[in-house]
Amino acid sequence: MRLNLIQFLSYSPLMMSGIFIPVFAASLGASYFEVGLISAFYGSASFISSFIFGKAADINRIRPIILTGLAVSAVSFFLQIFAYNASSLAVIRAMVGFSVGIYPAALIVSIYYNKGSIGKFSSFGALGWMVGYVLAGFIGNIEYLFILSSLSFCIAFLVALGLIEVEKPSIHVSYFSLEVFRENLDTYLSVFIRHVGAVSVWTIMPLYLSSLGASNFWIGLIYAINPLIQFLIMRKLDNFNNGWLMKWGFITSALAFGSYFFASNYYFIIPGMFLVAFGWSFMYVGANQLLVERTIEKASSTGILSSIISAANIVGALLGGAILEVFGFRETMVFAVICSIVAMGIFLHMNRFPEAAKLG
What residues have CB less than 8 Å from 49, skipping those under 6 apart? Predict the structure, then answer.
């Protein structure tokens, strides 16, 4: 329960302070492209951190890594209140990105070695997202949200002090080895491409919703639908075939992003939030279960997955800002649909593992 609570407390701030970053950046004078660039700084730092500390969790003790990540995150989230222009926000968001890449792989491996459910554990992250979105919608003031986000990490740190060190096999691996990446290229590449499309949408979605007439309250409420459905779905996915989950994750994602294209006002975004919740739940749980079940370096493999998602955050944020700047909101949705379809094709083509090949 401590691990589930930490997952909840550490995911809530990500959405609580993150949802209005595009709007906050615009208020500081950032252009659409600079909004994407700020998100790219966050993703770049998270990419580096996830890779380093995923390896570290296989080589070293897990508890100190979790405690360090939560403590550093509490500080970096608080520092966001001091951003005064686009450049300072970009630097602080990079610090935030690095801090939140420290602990996730260690948490997932702790669940695995404690014989817990990865699906249920992941669902508490989705629940944290939902609470973060709802609080963001009700509170509205971005500076208050930064402070509350920092407080949430402080509580998570106090909870983590009661964790017992996980007993795990001693694994001697090089920090620079790419063998795990090569072994799981089908999963990493397909997740990367799908998530590039998704992030291009999420980077500009608050602005899109605003253009459709949504207030800050409605933006937070609409965003909360996605993680609420994820929380309910992820808890039930442990016994599903992982390859099946991946395939249908891509399909439902494409349907979701396609529905956003046709929205005439913000109410019509709601059905797509249900679809994208299924898409992410299927893909994320399926990918993590595939990695820990077939890879000896479990923390490294899940850490690389976090890095891949962070890399997609970089590319997707840049492309989202650029596509919006050059073309418009709806063209960004088309791009996300194409990414999901291409990702599914790559996964099905490259997959050569028996447990993932049974794609009924």
Answer: 97, 98, 99, 100, 101, 102, 310
- 171 occurs within a structural domain: no
User: What's the whole-model pTM score?
Assistant: 0.76
Give the H or E element holding residue 296. Answer: none
Q: Domain holding 89: CATH number?
A: 1.20.1250.20
- Look at residue 44 and tell me if it is in a domain: yes
Neighbours of 352 (CB within 10 A): 8
Q: Is residue 168 in a domain?
A: no
Q: How many structural domains comprise the chain?
A: 1
Question: Is residue 89 a part of any domain in this protein?
Answer: yes
Positions in the chain short of pLDDT 50: 353-360
**How does pLDDT run across 38-86, given as a tens digit for each residue?**
877 887 888 888 888 877 877 778 889 899 999 999 999 999 999 888 8
pLDDT for 252: 95
Nearest Cα neighbor of 77 from 107, 42, 27 is: 42
pLDDT, one tens digit per residue, over 299-336 is 778 878 888 887 887 788 788 878 888 888 889 999 99
Angle at 119 (CA atoms; ends 3, 357), nearest 5 degrees: 140
The whole-angstrom separation of Cα 213 and Cα 127 is 27
How far, CA to CA in Å, does 215 sit from each of 202, 241, 260, 352? 17, 40, 18, 47
Tell me what pLDDT residue 357 has. 38
8 Å CB contact between 335 and 220? no
For 159-200, give the DSSP string.
HHTTPPPPP-------TT--HHHHHTHHHHHHHHHHHHHHHH
DSSP structure class, residue 225: H
Question: Helix, strand, coil: what percent of the chain each, to 5?
Answer: 80, 0, 20
Provide the residue range defining the domain that includes 304: 2-162+179-357
